[in-house]
Amino acid sequence: MGLSFELPYFPRKGLVEDVLQILTSGLKQGVTLFAPRRQGKTSFVRHELIPAAHELGWKTLYIDLWRRRGEPELALVEGLEAFLEARRSGWKRRLRFRQLRAKASAGAAEVESTLEPVSFTPDAVLENRLDFALSALAEKDVTLLVLDEVQALAGAKREDFVAALRTVIQKLQGRLLVFYTGSSREGLNHMFRQQRAPLFASAMPVQLPDLGDDFIEDRMVFLAERTRARIDEASLRNAFERLGRTPEFLNEVILHLLIAGNGNIDAAMAKWMQSHTETGAGALLEELRPLELALMNMLAQPGHPSVYSTESVAWLSRWPDIDASLTTAKIQAALKRLTRMELVAPTGRQGDYEIEDRAVLLHLRAGT
């Protein structure tokens, strides 16, 4: 985007209180928060949950599993080991860097990729390293472990890893609390909701509150403080609706308004769409195969047919470069790849899928 300025955080009313009430009740050791990307889950963690945990005297560690989603189990174990090494000897001593972004600020630790501590002698069994690291992490203080984009673990190559994670967490009850965030409904079901899921019934879900008129009013105050241009509140509210009520997207539009300094929301929206076409959604769609792109375009249509219906096959067959002998097996294979890319997810209704990435959906509906 090229827009690095961060707008003031707008709190999610009542959410941190709900999370802390669950975690301090002793009834559940974990909490899950699943919502589409760019809705503000990570901002909530950094601006509200971690500071609140510190006020309770808890130690916190944040690990983003999406940074290394091809090997999420390694991302978790090495992130834990990096934190232990940092706590013991400082962030910069005896650490080898490998695809790393790590930082510590305001008492919180974050590991966004991976560190390889020299002083650790890794066990050949990853599950043993996990057990050792988590046990050491929660050895003295109550610790809140935040696992961002936890659905990445649904694709872990080691089948026993998530089961081992649950076992260790249960062993550390009373000392280790876990806050899981994710953006994939498929991953949520695979990890937590299905009867045979590895973390079934181990955490209580909470909902991310929608932002409404109070969010728009707050953004209007921000704009009034920083620009003399007249901003129409109804137009800004309409832009929020057009953006699928996605806070990150509206903040980006507001930044375009600040740069232009003219209050023209339609022009700011056009700039926003252009930037995502060039560097985000547009670039992503260019990587898709013809049938995958056709499916994405069909799913972007309001009231689209079931993906395996006769109507769907006929619609897809008319798409350029689609084989006339299109079969449901080919459609299923394309959907499986799109699901792995976390572009689409089943809704729970038979044969019904939806686009999970809001930027991609808006891009397709705009017809660009």
What key phrases describe this protein's structure?
368 residues, Rossmann fold, single chain, 3 domains, alpha/beta, two-stranded antiparallel sheet
Question: Overview of this structure, please?
Answer:
With 368 residues, the chain is of the alpha/beta class. The chain has 3 domains: 192 residues, P-loop containing nucleotide triphosphate hydrolases (Rossmann fold, 3-Layer(aba) Sandwich); 67 residues; 83 residues, Arc Repressor Mutant, subunit A (Orthogonal Bundle). Helix content is 47%, strand content 13%. It contains 15 helices and 11 strands. A 7-stranded mixed beta sheet has the order 4-5-2-7-8-1-9, with helices on both faces. About 6% of the residues have low confidence.
